[in-house]
Design brief:
There is one protein chain. With about 525 residues, this protein is α+β, with helices and mostly antiparallel strands. Among the domains are: about 190 residues, FAD/NAD(P)-binding domain, CATH 3.50.50.60; about 100 residues. Helices cover about 30% and strands about 20% of the residues. The chain has 16 helices and 22 strands. The strands form six sheets. Strands 9-8-17-18-19-16-20 form a seven-stranded mixed sheet, sandwiched between helices. Strands 11-3-2-15-21 form a five-stranded parallel sheet, with helices on one face.
Length: about 525
């Protein structure tokens, strides 16, 4: 997908033209260090290298992809498998992430669509997005009509005035309106039935790895806009049909190699310092190298730590803002190699609510080739469990045991399964978007010319979230540097940045001329 070719089925998707300029860098050579090889760093490195910039990409881990990376592990039977930090849904609204992947996979053949996005509540209520229409507002109306968690008497008790912000989400105005409210309090104000709150909304808030009491309502409402009322791409999604490294990042590394980029893995950056003539030095344990510009594409703890070790970066106010960034509560990913199959009727991915700390279950052999080969060889299953927003002082072994116990409750056939092998990842490095903090979050540009930020922690003023925010910010960071050199940037796409339906805008009290703005 290039230029103005529409990236999906939604005819209201918004095209963001690139900053104008020359097609490639000419004149003096330019160099950029990109620190961090997650999605944001890979997007920035790709965008710059394709325009002729000499890019060096630094990554502290031995693998690319950041929170969507993977690494080899040896199982007890001597076989090798790829471990990761867990399942990620590649929604069809993720236009810029998918554009990055199309560099090496033009038809996205490494992604496969899951047939459903089911949600189960411990009360026995089940929801599904498989039969929900994709076009707004039929998407939200269809979900409510088909969902057993929305009963007519419950709908009568709802607070329609409190729901108005959902009908006409505008970015960035949604932050002015709702950033001072928690997602939990906003949901309570709607007076939704409790099961519907868990299934239809809290699944979004927990996608940020945060308790709804800690999360800004603006972020949760933005998610509702992106997936329900703001986009016609729907709630179904794709997943890689192989482990993240082989399906996604090894091909992209080869693409970077072809464009002259240098990639250093297992290479943490010690500090970055500006020079007197406007350049930067990047110091690792191996060497000190000079670059014209720098992209910092780190997670929250990594960015805070690097800025703290680099006392000459930015001004005092910017450094204080970076230091105020916080990580979401820890989460746990448990992957189990079982000696018998999960029931054939079980979905590949299941979102759960009301089952203690268990938030979702993946049966990996349903879509991933490596897991399918292991299951075929052993007659078992490869199952992954997620628990989000766990207490920071929790006992990790206890939490892992609880996830397994909840799996056996949700899928009783696993009670007799023997765990042949298991791996557990306890992490706390996702950004927290707390109540009232939007205005304090850093943007792509910094007080220092030539220094830019990228990552899902960055404020973009665009209707993007999660992996798509990471990819979008990476392209925005690259475009900012290219613009300064007079080089044309890369085009972007987003879902509409305001409510797209005239009737819903009227119900929300819209007094602005109807229409979707396409000049963002």
């Amino acid at each position: 997908m290039t230029g103005t070719t529409r990236p999906g089925r939604d005819r209201s998707a918004v095209f963001l033209p690139p900053p104008p300029g020359a097609p490639r860098l000419g004149g003096p050579a330019r160099s950029t260090a990109v620190v961090g090889a997650g999605i944001a760093g890979l997007a920035a490195a790709t965008a710059l290298a394709e325009r002729g910039v000499a890019v060096t990409l630094y990554e502290r881990e031995a693998y690319l992809g950041g929170r969507v990376g993977g690494w080899p592990v040896e199982l007890h039977d001597g076989s090798t498998a790829t471990m990761s930090r867990g399942f990620h849904a590649f929604f069809r609204q993720y236009y810029n992430l998918r554009s990055l992947l199309r560099r090496t996979d033009p038809h996205l053949g490494q992604l496969t669509g899951l047939p459903d996005y089911p949600l189960w509540h411990s009360s026995g209520l089940h929801d599904s997005f498989r039969r929900v229409p994709r076009t707004p507002p039929l998407s939200a109306l269809g979900f409510a009509a088909l969902s057993p968690s929305f009963r007519s008497r419950d709908l009568v008790r709802m607070n329609p005035a409190a729901a108005r912000p959902l009908l006409d989400v505008r970015v960035p105005q949604v932050y002015e309106r709702l950033d001072g409210v928690s997602a939990y309090d906003f949901l309570a104000s709607l007076r939704f039935p409790e099961a519907a709150r868990h299934l239809a909304f809290e699944v979004f808030s927990r996608s940020f790895f945060a308790d709804p009491r800690q999360l800004s309502a603006a972020e949760m409402v933005l998610m509702f806009h992106i997936y329900f009322l703001g986009s016609a791409e729907g709630l179904l999604f794709d997943v890689p049909n192989g482990p993240f490294p082989t399906a996604l990042w090894e091909p992209l590394r080869a693409h970077l190699d072809r464009h002259g980029a240098t990639v250093h893995t297992s290479t943490p950056v010690a500090h970055v310092a500006p020079t007197a003539d406007g350049a930067f030095t990047v110091v690792t344990d191996r060497q000190e190298t000079r670059y014209d510009t720098v992209v910092l594409a780190l997670d929250t703890p990594g960015l805070r730590a690097l800025v703290a070790r680099s006392p000459r970066l930015g001004d005092a106010a910017w450094r204080e803002r970076i230091d105020r960034l916080r990580s979401a509560p820890p989460f746990l990913v448990s992957r189990l190699w079982l000696d018998r199959r999960v029931g054939a009727d079980r979905p590949g991915f299941l979102g759960t609510a009301g089952y203690g700390s268990l938030d979702n279950i993946s049966v990996l052999e349903r879509w991933e080739g490596e897991a399918a080969r292991h299951a075929s060889r052993t007659g078992g299953s490869v199952v992954e469990l997620h628990g989000y927003a766990l207490p920071e002082d929790a006992d990790q072994a206890v939490e892992a045991h609880r996830l397994v116990e909840q799996l056996r409750r949700v899928y009783p056939e696993t009670r007799d399964a023997r765990i042949l092998d298991e791996r557990h990842e306890w992490r706390q490095d996702c950004p927290l978007f707390p109540v009232g903090a939007y205005g304090d979050r850093p943007s792509v540009r910094t007080p220092r010319s030539g220094l830019v930020l990228a990552g899902d922690l960055v404020r973009t003023h665009l209707p993007v979230a999660l992996m798509e925010r990471a990819a979008t910010s990476g392209f925005l960071a690259a475009n900012a540097l290219l613009q300064a050199w007079g080089v044309r940037g890369h085009p972007l796409w987003t879902v509409p940045d305001r409510g797209r339906n005239r009737l819903l805008r009227t119900l929300a009290g819209d007094r602005i001329r109807p229409g979707v703005r396409e000049d963002a």
